[in-house]
Amino acid sequence: ADSGEAAWKADGFRMRVDASGSFTARDATACRYSGAFALADPNLAAYSFDLKLAQCGQYDGSYRGHAVLSGGKLAYGVSGARFARSGYLAR
User: Fold this and answer.
1) Residue 26, helix vs strand vs coil
2) DSSP 19
3) pTM of the model
4) Is residue 50 predicted with pLDDT exceeding 70?
5) Rounded mean pLDDT of 57-82?
6) CA nearest neighbour of 13 among 37, 40, 31
7) What is the pLDDT of residue 2?
8) How confident is the model over 25-29, as a mean pLDDT?
9) CB distance 31 to 11 below 8 Å
10) Cβ within 8 Å of residue 76, ≥6 positions away
11) How far apart are CA 91 and CA 79, in angstroms?
C-alpha cells in the first residue's frame, strides 16, 4: 500500500507489500496471509483489500477489508464469515 516495497509489523505479525500492492504475511502461529491492496481514495490514502487466510484451521477463507495510511501507520479493518479484526501496523 505504498510506492515500492514495504514491510509492516505488529506484535507477532509481519507483512510485506510489493510495489503492485500484493502482500504476504505471517503471524506467530501457522497462519498464512496473502492478498492485494487497491487504492480506494488517493485523497485519503485509503485502500481496499482482499485477504486469503490459510493454514489457520477454522479461520481459513477469503475476507475483505479497508486500510488507511496515516502518521507512518497502516490502520486496518477486515471481516468475513469466520474472522474479524482491526488494528494497525507500523513500519
Assistant:
1) strand
2) T
3) 0.88
4) yes
5) 94
6) 31
7) 45
8) 93
9) no
10) 49, 65, 66, 67, 68, 85, 86, 87, 88, 89
11) 23
